[in-house]
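Journal club side-thread
Mid-discussion, someone asked how the predicted structure for our own chain would compare to the paper's figures. Pasting it here so we can look after the session.
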Amino acid sequence: MTESAPADDVQAVDATDPGTVTGRDGLVRPAWASVDPLLREYYDTEWGMPVRDERGMYERISLEAFQAGLSWATILRKRPAFRAAFDGFVPETVAEYGHRDLERLMADAAIVRNRAKILAAVTNAQATLRLRDKGGLADFVWSFRPDRTPAPRTVAEVPTKSPESLALSRALRKEGFTFVGPTTMYALMEAVGIVDTHLLGSHRRGSSGVWPQ
């Protein structure tokens, strides 16, 4: 997400951090959240807010897996189609998918047609059901919350993984999950509020209520 924001949407690019943009509304955002209205809305209202329910966490893990190698903007635009194709990401339903469902999904041009990632969504739904015996997926993921969250001043200071994301990756793999590498899991932890990587100057810093501002 390195596009430049249109002139009518941008008030100023911070000379000390070209990855930061102050919008016409006076609010500071990273450049990736300042270009596309859909991304801006996602950043302003959803990204980094706590997700603590099983279905929501399973959906986020699935979408993070589909995002691997692609831009998040691509996945976000396709999210309604993903939800329709995967029956709302209800784990019980996806866990029962068979060959016919796989072929249906591979023929659906509205989603990302990657066989390995589709199979991972089914495998991870089955693993999600098994985790109910250990307190459930959401609590399992949240148990890897670190003692401290990063405090990046610039985009360059935002981590891409951490000891906790590595541990979460290993733990999920042990439970039968796939496409849950440490970088992907760090992105998940950012998205669901487990860590707060909003820049210190961002208007969203501390908005999750999980970490002090």
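Post-session note: DSSP finds nine helices and three strands in the chain.
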